[in-house]
C-alpha cells in the first residue's frame, strides 16, 4: 500500500498535432504535507504536469491518482493558483475570497450557519495572508503582491488538501517575491496543505521545496529529484548557506546540460574565439 497522496505512474501526454511529447514516463509520488517544487527550462512540461494533476488536462498514458482515486477532472481536493491572478475587479478583497463559497451556498441551498462559518474562514484567511487592513479595498487599489495574496486566500477558502501553483510569483519583483516565499511556507505549515509548486527559478525552487523535481524538455520528462538538505522551516539567511549554494550550482548546471543551453553557450564561446 502506497502512502503517497499524489501518485504519478508512467504518465505520458502528447498534445494533438504536436511533434514532441509534452510528458514521457513521469513517475512521482508526493506525500501528504510535502512541499514539492517542479523546476526546469521553458517547455519541459511543468505546466502540463500541473494542469494534468489539477484535472484540467487529460493524459494519454499511465496513471494519476490522488488519495488512491484516479484523477478524472478538477475536484474540491485540489486548488490551483496561476501566475495571473484573476480577481473580480467589482468585488472587494473579502468578497473575492468568499465568492466561490457564496455561489455554492446559493446553489446547494445551504443554511445561514454555513454562510457564517464561511465568513469566519474568510476572516481567518485575511489574517493569515496579512490582508485584514485591506479587506474592503478593491483589487485595482492593491499591488501585484497583495492581489496574489487575495488569489491564494481564495484558493484556500474551501480547505483544499492540495494546492497546485504555476509560477504564482513570476510577475512579482524580487523583494515582494521573498516576502511571498516566507508567506507561502507559513501557509503550508498552518494549513498542513500539500503543495506542488512550478517555477523556472532555481533559487525559488530550492528555497521552498522539501524536494526539487528537475524536468527536462524534448520530450518533457523528470530528469532528477533532489532532496533539499535544509530544515523544512527555511529562513532567508539559508539562501547564502554553503549547502544551498552548492545545490543551486548543481541544479543550474544540470538544467544547462539538459536544455541544450550548454550547447548554445559552447557555440557562443567558439564564435567569440573565432572573432578574436
Ligand atoms: N495547449 C497546448 N497545445 C499544444 N502544445 C502545447 C500546449 N501546451 C503546451 N504545449 C507544448 O507542450 C510542451 C510542454 O509545455 P508546458 O507544459 O507549457 O511547459 P513549461 O510549463 O515547462 O514551460 C511544450 O513543447 C509546449 O509547446
Ligand atoms: Mg509553464
Keywords:
alpha/beta; 2 domains; globular; binds adenosine-5'-diphosphate; 41% helix; 10 strands; 8 helices; 6-stranded mixed beta sheet; Rossmann fold; 276 residues
Written description of the protein model:
The chain has 276 residues and is of the alpha/beta class. It has helices at 46-54, 93-108, 112-128, 144-156, 174-191, 202-208, 242-259, 261-275, and strands spanning 4-13, 23-31, 35-39, 61-66, 69-70, 78-81, 162-166, 194-199, 211-216, 221-227. The strands form two sheets. Strands 6-7-8-3-9-10 form a six-stranded mixed beta sheet, sandwiched between helices. Strand 7 (162-166), helix 5 (174-191) and strand 8 form a beta-alpha-beta unit. Helix 2 (93-108) packs parallel to helix 4, helix 3 crosses helix 4 and helix 6 crosses helix 7. It starts with a strand and ends with a helix. The mean pLDDT is 91. It binds adenosine-5'-diphosphate and magnesium ion (MG). Magnesium ion (MG) is lined by residues 46-47. The site of adenosine-5'-diphosphate (ADP) has 13 residues, from helix 1.
Brief digest:
With 276 residues, the chain is of the alpha/beta class. It has 2 domains: 4-77 and 161-275, P-loop containing nucleotide triphosphate hydrolases (Rossmann fold, 3-Layer(aba) Sandwich); 87-159, no CATH class. It has helices spanning 46-54, 93-108, 112-128, 144-156, 174-191, 202-208, 242-259, 261-275; strands spanning 4-13, 23-31, 35-39, 61-66, 69-70, 78-81, 162-166, 194-199, 211-216, 221-227.
Amino acid at each position: 500500500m502506497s502512502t503517497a497522496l499524489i501518485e504519478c505512474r508512467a504518465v505520458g501526454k502528447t498534445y494533438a498535432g504536436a511533434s514532441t511529447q509534452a510528458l514521457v514516463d513521469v513517475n512521482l509520488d508526493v506525500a501528504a504535507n510535502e512541499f514539492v517544487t517542479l523546476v526546469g527550462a521553458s517547455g519541459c512540461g511543468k505546466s502540463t504536469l500541473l494542469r494534468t494533476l489539477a484535472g484540467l488536462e487529460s493524459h494519454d498514458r499511465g496513471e494519476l491518482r490522488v488519495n488512491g482515486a484516479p484523477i478524472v477532472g478538477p475536484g474540491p481536493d485540489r486548488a490551483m493558483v496561476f501566475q495571473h491572478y484573476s480577481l473580480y475587479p467589482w468585488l472587494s478583497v473579502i468578497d473575492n475570497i468568499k465568492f466561490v463559497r457564496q455561489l455554492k451556498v446559493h446553489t446547494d441551498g445551504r443554511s445561514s450557519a454555513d454562510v457564517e462559518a464561511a465568513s469566519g474562514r474568510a476572516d481567518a484567511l485575511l489574517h493569515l495572508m496579512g490582508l485584514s487592513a485591506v479587506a474592503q479595498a478593491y483589487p485595482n487599489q492593491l499591488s501585484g503582491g497583495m492581489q496574489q495574496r487575495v488569489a491564494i486566500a481564495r484558493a484556500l477558502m474551501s480547505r483544499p488538501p492540495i494546492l497546485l501553483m504555476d509560477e504564482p510569483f513570476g510577475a512579482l519583483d524580487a523583494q515582494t517575491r521573498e516576502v511571498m516565499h516566507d508567506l507561502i511556507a507559513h501557509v503550508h505549515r498552518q494549513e498542513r496543505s500539500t503543495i506542488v509548486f512550478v517555477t523556472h527559478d532555481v533559487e525559488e525552487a530550492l528555497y521552498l521545496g522539501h524536494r526539487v523535481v528537475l524536468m527536462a524538455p524534448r520530450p518533457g520528462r523528470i530528469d532528477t529529484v533532489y532532496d533539499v538538505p535544509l530544515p523544512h522551516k527555511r529562513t532567508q539567511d539559508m539562501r547564502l548557506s554553503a549547502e544551498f549554494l552548492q545545490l543551486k550550482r548543481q541544479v543550474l548546471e544540470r538544467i544547462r546540460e539538459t536544455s541544450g543551453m550548454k550547447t548554445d553557450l559552447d557555440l557562443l564561446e567558439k564564435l567569440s574565439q573565432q572573432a578574436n
